[in-house]
């Protein structure tokens, strides 16, 4: 009995397999054949390559723009402003002013301090007279919202000028 059921089941599976083995792909073949009808592709031609015009530098008699100028009228120009190059640098002078941020201010007794955050994430407490930034910046005033400082920058070969800058409180 078990054997007849097994043979009957095997016969059903075999007929189902033969029903699925149809090799009639005519509908698929006609779709592929008809899908390319009406397509007209066109590839644009490559753009014309423009030749580079070479330039020969012949200005050897002109002064070098990368060497400092040494003319008679600039040698003795001095307005009395110059940074103290012999002063020991403070920690915040090793960072550019743009990378420092004012995060707050505080008052202790009669002294007002500003809290400056350096790019490495360390908070520094500074007060009037401290220096910060690469341009010899000296703190002039400290308020709740900003720190005003005077920087000394070089404007010519032997001339220094003072420039006003500020660090604003970041939100």
Describe this entry's structure for a reader.
This protein is of the alpha+beta class. The protein has a domain at about 95-170: SH3 type barrels. Helix content is about 20%, strand content about 25%. It is built from 3 helices and 7 strands; from the N terminus they run αααβββββββ. It has helices at about 1-20, 25-35, 70-75, and strands at about 100-110, 110-115, 125, 130, 135-140, 145-155, 160-170. The strands form 2 sheets. A 4-stranded antiparallel sheet has the order 4-5-6-7, with no helix packed on it. Strands 1-2-3 form a 3-stranded antiparallel sheet, with no helix packed on it. A hairpin with a 3-residue loop joins strand 5 (about 135-140) and strand 6 (about 145-155). The chain starts with a helix and ends with a strand. Residues about 70-75 have low confidence and may be disordered.
């Amino acid at each position: 009995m078990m054997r007849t059921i097994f043979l009957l089941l095997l016969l059903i599976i075999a007929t189902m397999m033969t029903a699925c083995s149809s090799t009639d792909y005519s509908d698929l073949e006609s779709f592929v054949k008809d899908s390319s009808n009406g397509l007209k592709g066109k590839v644009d031609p490559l753009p014309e390559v423009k030749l580079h015009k070479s330039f020969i530098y012949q200005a050897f008699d002109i002064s070098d723009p990368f060497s400092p100028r040494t003319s008679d009228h600039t040698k003795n120009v001095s307005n009395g402003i110059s940074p103290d190059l012999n002063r020991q640098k403070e920690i915040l002078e090793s960072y550019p002013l743009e990378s420092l941020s004012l995060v707050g201010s505080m008052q202790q007794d009669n002294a007002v301090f500003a809290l400056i955050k350096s790019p490495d994430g360390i908070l520094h407490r500074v007060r009037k007279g401290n220096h910060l930034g690469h341009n010899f910046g000296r703190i002039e005033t400290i308020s709740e919202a900003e720190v005003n400082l005077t920087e000394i920058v070089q404007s010519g070969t032997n001339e220094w000028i003072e420039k006003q800058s500020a660090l604003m409180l970041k939100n």
